[in-house]
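Hi there,

I know you've been waiting on this one. I reran it after we fixed the sequence typo, so this is the corrected version. Both the input and the resulting structure follow.
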Amino acid sequence: MFITQDQLRQARREVVVRPRSISRIEWPDFKVRPISEEWQYCGRVPAYKSAVANVAYIWRHSDPVDRFGSMPTRFAERRFELKGSGLLLPASAPVWAASDPYKIWAEADAVTVATGDPTAVAAWHVLMEIPLDVRPENWRWLCEGFLHSQLVQQGAAVAWAIHSVEGDDGDWIIKPHMHSIVTARYWRHDKRHGRRHPNWIGSWAQQKRMEFAWRRRCSSMRDLLRAGFLANRSRPSLTQ
């Protein structure tokens, strides 16, 4: 029995077309905002003007102070939204970086102001939606593993936090999402301290690559959940 041209075309549609026909609606939201005093680009909304303020916002702290003054009290008032947070550093990070979690961000603000350019970027504020089918006990693994593989292993310092609020009826008042603050500058105390870093997510192309990487990780998480891999509390390494 011979295979007809119609059958061959149908087989190609099944193998090639269908797996790629992924609706845009299923893609988790991903945004990158610059942290700068007066940064503007094609209508993109900037984040708070200092890196310190952005970290305080995602960590829900009202006590830090930046060059514009104290943080709003509403930061701490919304602490009930916080489901996890931390500061991720490379294994070779100096002791001072971990002992004072705001020092990196205060120094990034200081060197940015010293440039005299109000459009200079001190850090990047990245917002990533967490798919609703990922259970809360797996949020941290999903997020920390992604940040380790995409940024921390490249030498970046990253402050992160997960926010969400679930209503009594099971619906989400605030859907789960992760904020991460990524320094745009060299942060170690060496001869390159304060210079703009050319990698990490400093360009549009790098930001798009990171967005696609987040989609892939969320897709992989769904596959693991369907296979029951995470149901038994068995997780791969964070760096995978």
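Quick highlight: The radius of gyration is 21 Å.

Best,
R. S.
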